[in-house]
């Protein structure tokens, strides 16, 4: 229960920050998003592993650090936290008008490529800095994870939404930032990015499989 509570809190504040900054059109939204992820990773990492992202949870499960049962509960908690955070952000900001991302044609391929690449990068960084036996007690993992998201948001946020997280996609849909008819794109490609990162980690670290 401690792990589930930590996942709820971290995911809530991540999505709440995303919602408030994006709905308010804050110019430094990517920096705020990366910063809140960083501090929540430091706050909850020792309790739950600080996934706050179903794609990261999938990567950690495929890497062998958690089982399917815990992963399934993590996914439910993360999505519920995202929906509640999205509703809270909408209430706080109360935007006059929201434009939903609804890609078509070439834009679909742009979203797929941008989201799968940066979700891969995020999950790959998490696996290497937060689960590797070579870094059992490091102090840089939160900074590395937060800055990966900030870099991705600055780089492709204006093109793909800078989601990199299925729970964030659900939260964005709740806030009207992503069209529900197209949300499957973000769900599929972010989970694929997480799975690919787990595969890459295991290929590069063949002896670092299973619980630490």
UniProtKB/TrEMBL annotation:
Q: Name one GO cellular component term.
A: membrane
| Mode of membrane association | Multi-pass membrane protein
Q: Give the UniProt keywords, A-Z.
A: Membrane, Transmembrane, Transmembrane helix, Transport
Q: Where, subcellularly, is it found?
A: Membrane
Would the keyword Zinc turn up in this protein's UniProt record?
Answer: no
Q: Name the SUPFAM superfamilies on file.
A: Aquaporin-like
- Lineage, please? Bacteria, Bacillati, Actinomycetota, Actinomycetes, Streptosporangiales
Gene3D superfamilies named in the record: Glycerol uptake facilitator protein (1.20.1080.10)
**Pfam families membership:** MIP
Task: State the family it belongs to.
Answer: Belongs to the MIP/aquaporin (TC 1.A.8) family.
Q: What is this protein called?
A: Porin
Transmembrane parts of this sequence? 34-60, 72-93, 108-127, 139-163, 183-204
